[in-house]
Amino acid sequence: MINRFLTDVGRYVLLMGKVFSRPEKRRIYLRRTINEMEAVGLGSIVITAIISVFMGAVVALQMSINLEDGFIPRSLIGYATRETMILEFSSTVVALILAGKVGSSIASEIGTMRITEQIDALELMGVNSAGYLILPKIVAAVFFFPFLCILSILVGTTGGYAVCALTGVLMPGDFIVGLHLDFKPWSIVYALIKTSVFAFIITSVSSFFGYHARGNSLEVARSSTQAVVASSITILIFNLILTQWLLI
């Protein structure tokens, strides 16, 4: 098992070397990157917004239940909602969700091209198939995912504010006070750095499994599942590393 893991790591590094080699025609790569932004980024806005608004609302409700002690300021509900969305949910949890949505799609797309010999045809024409297929996806995700992170933070805190206003668990003014309490701009930078790293992990790992798919359509489905699992585990590992490096 260890030998297989080390072999896959070596193949991944070699593939990334091919991906980041000098592109043949930059105009074509730019056009493909723009198209990938639409597929990878714009297609994920709705699910990101829906999940974030309900998560922000749930965090606010849970904090209101656990802060019934009169000696604890109720404004901490707004503070906890903001910190939860910025530090973990909008970067890590959203990345795990996108690993399932975007990662499986990328692995299936490239895997299908592999078993139908489209990648082999590109190689015969002298095209760097790894760079042509994978690089635009990586660039698009690394560029667009931070915008999804910002969207998640804004929508999540709005969801927390809305549930406080609608249910009366907290005065909206107190929630706003909590949002401004001890705000550290570095937290936003931290979340965006994590999101960019996770975007690279999702697209590169998923592309790796799809690029090396072999056999039939069943193997494509298997590579898609492996891509989601491997991406999720890698995200969790790097979440621990980046938190230790950037915050502590």
3D architecture notes:
This protein is an all-alpha fold. It has one domain. Helix content is 84%, strand content 0%. The chain is built from 9 helices and no strands. The protein has helices at 2-19, 26-41, 45-66, 76-115, 118-124, 129-167, 172-180, 185-211, 217-246. α3 packs antiparallel against α4 (76-115), α4 runs antiparallel to α6 and α4 (76-115) packs across α7.
Number of domains: 1
Number of strands: 0
User: What oligomeric arrangement do these chains adopt?
Assistant: single chain
Please report the distance between the alpha carbons of the first and last residues.
34 Å
Structural class: mainly alpha
* Biggest sheet features: none
Number of helices: 9
Please compute the radius of gyration using only Cα atoms: 21 Å
Layout: helices, strands, pairs:
Elements: H1 2-19, H2 26-41, H3 45-66, H4 76-115, H5 118-124, H6 129-167, H7 172-180, H8 185-211, H9 217-246
Could you give a short description of this structure?
The chain is mainly alpha-helical. It is 84% helix and 0% strand.
